[in-house]
């Protein structure tokens, strides 16, 4: 039932974007398309260094509704944040020029350290003291949920959604003050984000708070397999390829 609701919700969103395009309006998620006023004094980072091994291809190049996952994510974040960092393993694979103003492509400072290494790079490169970090394979984020997380930034060194026993550390806010502690763990080979979070002050956003912003939990739908990709394309009103 959850997937059915997600697919219906995404289809409605897709139809609205098509209507906007016909009316000459820019879709909300397009890079540079959303009104830039009202952006918040935080940085955002997209982790785009994963290899997509289970999927068998580079996630950043996958397209849904004619837009790649990376472009879609950067466009969404660009409407909220004055600075968006794209963290990659190889800068040659992604050019800042394709995204425009306010977007910087940065290379992993400590390559091969997984998502925690990507978070470390984002915190080192960010211009603002708090950074919203998001994976590049989450095509349906809700802005209301992002803004709710940001509103709690002063309540912990990290603000992380939690659903029962499950946390969402790649849709979360981190303080730059965590940089050195993360680096120390990376240098010791301690790469698991949830174990790191056990050592710092975290404000968890619990499920009842999450659903008030994102009733269908669509923000956490991510693409790890070909079946996930087919489902995402159905959700976008397209057939699987």
Q: How do you describe this structure in short?
A:
This protein has 241 residues and is of the alpha/beta class. The protein has helices spanning 2-22, 69-78, 114-125, 143-151, 179-187, 193-197, 207-213, 226-235, and strands at 43-47, 63-64, 67-68, 83-88, 103-107, 130-135, 158-163, 166-167, 171-175, 202-205. The chain is globular, with a radius of gyration of 17 Å.
CATH-assigned fold name? Spore Coat Polysaccharide Biosynthesis Protein SpsA, Chain A
CATH top-level class: Alpha Beta
| CATH architecture grouping | Alpha-Beta Complex
The residue fraction in helices comes out at: 25-40%
Tell me how many strands there are: 10
Uncertain segments: 1-36
Rg result:
17 Å
Largest sheet: 8 strands, mixed
What is the ordering of alpha helices and beta strands? HEEEHEEHEHEEEHHEHH
Structural class: alpha/beta
Instruction: State the fourth-level CATH superfamily.
Output: Spore Coat Polysaccharide Biosynthesis Protein SpsA, Chain A
First and last CA, distance: 23 Å
Report the portion of residues in β strands: 15-25%
Please report the number of helical segments: 8
Shape: globular
Overall pLDDT confidence: 83
Query: What's the structural domain tally?
Result: 1
Q: How would you explain this protein's 3D organization?
A:
This protein has 241 residues and is an alpha/beta fold. The protein has one domain: Spore Coat Polysaccharide Biosynthesis Protein SpsA, Chain A (Alpha-Beta Complex). The chain is built from eight helices and ten strands. The strands form two sheets. Strands 1, 4, 5, 6, 7, 8, 9 and 10 form an eight-stranded mixed sheet that branches. A two-stranded antiparallel ribbon has the order 2-3. Strand 7 and strand 8 (166-167) form a beta hairpin. It is globular, with a radius of gyration of 17 Å. 41% of the residues are buried.
């Amino acid at each position: 039932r959850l997937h059915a609701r997600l697919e219906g919700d995404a289809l409605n969103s897709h139809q609205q974007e098509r209507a906007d395009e016909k009316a000459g309006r820019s879709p909300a998620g397009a890079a540079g398309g959303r009104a830039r006023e009202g952006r918040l004094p935080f940085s955002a980072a997209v982790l785009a260094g994963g290899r997509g091994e289970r999927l068998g291809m580079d996630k950043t190049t996958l397209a849904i509704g004619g837009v790649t996952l990376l472009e879609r994510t950067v466009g969404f974040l660009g409407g909220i944040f004055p600075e968006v960092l794209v963290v990659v393993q190889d800068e040659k694979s992604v050019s800042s020029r394709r995204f425009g103003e306010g977007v910087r492509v940065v290379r992993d400072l400590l390559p091969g350290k997984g998502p925690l290494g990507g978070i470390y790079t984002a915190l080192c490169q960010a211009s603002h003291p708090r950074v919203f970090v998001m994976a590049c394979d989450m095509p349906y984020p809700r802005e209301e949920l992002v803004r709710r997380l940001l509103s709690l930034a002063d309540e912990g060194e990290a603000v992380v959604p939690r659903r029962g026993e499950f946390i969402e550390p790649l849709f979360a806010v981190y303080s730059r003050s965590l940089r050195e502690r993360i680096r120390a763990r990376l240098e010791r080979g301690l790469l698991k984000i949830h174990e790191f979070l056990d050592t710092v002050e975290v404000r968890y956003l619990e499920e009842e708070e999450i659903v008030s912003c994102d009733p269908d939990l669509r923000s956490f739908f991510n693409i790890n397999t070909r079946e996930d990709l087919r489902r995402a394309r159905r959700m976008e009103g397209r057939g699987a390829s």
